[in-house]
Design a protein that fits this description.
Length: 372
């Protein structure tokens, strides 16, 4: 294993163990997690592996096979760049009162970068999972996900919800993870496309627009302001949509419309999956995209073209996935339409002079685990 060899080369000893945590793709339920709503992501076959040994002196020695120079940190606060996602997990666990010493760490990852497939959540969760075992913390998978989210919110400074970290920690092979982001209750829902002659294609636009992080924070604020105006704890609690919309205007109105209808779409998709009608979820994916584009305003030209050309090529449904402003779209496609969808999307990009997007099928894989 490459990560073990690199660990030996770097530190002149064997690692105490090797762990893996996957990236994720979200089937539906976008920008609902921080509104206490519903999400339905699944863990991907790609992720981050970490070879780790504990250290008694509290020091962190970190190396990534995807980044330049290794770093040695006396305290997590010294971390920069990618190392913040690792150091942040030490920080979050120690803040939470856990006795976590230092570690020697080598990271190796194969989540496509910039694709919006949560390589950073995978990195946080793999570190949390390793530390949980090495330091005998006795945390549940959800508690690891929450520590990872805290690292991202309060250490890295990105106000994300819990979806990405939970999907990475709790995913199961062949299943999507339905989660109520208020109760943190989860259920793994069988998601077997092959037996229905279907594939879920990821279309990686290869772009990530600068404004992504700032706009994410602003959307979150819009939602919180709308909830306050409506006198509810979170937009999840809106039961009378028409009544709520009548009390709101502008951005707050549009954001509310998206979040409330998106929660309904997640529930509708769950119902269809339960009934074995997976072919029928396509129109809900399409509706989700329109709502994200027009009401939540987090799409971009590259995502819209990917979605529209996929549907024109014969996809049963398509939508942007993840935070937006770049990253990836997904398309639900019957086996015999895969080629025509590829051609349609690639052609639409070529027409505009854009670099060809990467297109590959995704199947639900297992969540975080020990490899060695
Ligand atoms: C990013 C965040 C998630 C979630 C999605 C949008 O991936 O990290 O918490 O809010 O955007 O659904």
């Amino acid at each position: 294993m490459r990560v073990v060899e690199a660990f030996r080369d770097s530190y002149g000893m064997e690692p105490a163990g090797v762990w893996h945590a996957p990236g994720r793709v979200n089937l539906i339920g976008e920008h609902t997690d921080y509104n206490d709503g519903f999400v339905l992501p699944f863990a991907l076959p790609w992720g981050v592996s970490a070879a780790v040994s504990p250290r008694e002196d509290g020091v962190l020695r970190l190396r990534s096979l995807q980044a330049g120079e290794p770093v040695t940190l006396a305290t997590p606060g010294e971390a920069e760049g990618w190392a913040r996602y690792v150091a942040g997990v030490f920080w979050a666990l120690r803040q939470g009162g856990q006795r976590v010493g230092g570690a020697d760490v080598v990271i190796d990852g194969d989540v496509p970068r910039g694709a919006g497939l949560s390589s950073s959540a995978a990195l946080e969760v793999v570190v949390g999972t390793a530390l949980n075992e090495l330091y005998g913390l006795g945390l549940t998978k959800m508690e690891i996900a929450l520590a990872a989210q805290r690292a991202e919110n309060d250490f890295v400074g990105m106000p994300c919800g819990i979806m990405d970290q939970a999907a990475s920690a709790l995913g199961e092979e062949g299943k999507a993870l339905f989660m109520d982001c208020r109760s943190l209750g989860t259920r793994n829902i069988p998601f077997d496309l092959a037996s229905h002659g279907l594939q879920l294609l990821i279309i990686n636009t290869g772009v990530r627009h600068e404004l992504a992080d700032g706009q994410y924070a602003r959307r979150r604020e819009d939602c919180e302001n709308a909830a306050e105006r409506l006198g509810v704890d979170a937009l999840r609690d809106v039961t009378d949509l028409a009544g709520a919309l009548a009390k709101l205007s502008g951005d707050e109105r549009r954001r509310t419309q998206h979040v409330v209808t998106e929660n309904h779409r997640v529930e509708a998709v769950i119902g269809l999956l339960r009934a074995g009608a997976v072919r029928e979820i396509g129109s809900l994916l399409n509706a989700s995209h329109l709502s994200l584009r027009d009401q939540f305003e987090v799409s971009c030209a590259e995502l819209d073209v990917a979605v529209e050309s996929a549907v024109r090529g014969g996809a049963r449904g398509a939508r942007m996935t993840g935070g937006g402003f770049g990253g990836s779209a997904i398309a639900l496609v019957a086996d015999d339409r895969v080629e025509s969808v590829r051609e349609s999307v690639t052609g639409a990009y070529a027409e505009r002079g854009w670099a060809a997007p990467e297109i590959y099928p995704a199947t639900p894989a297992a969540g975080a685990r020990r490899l060695l």
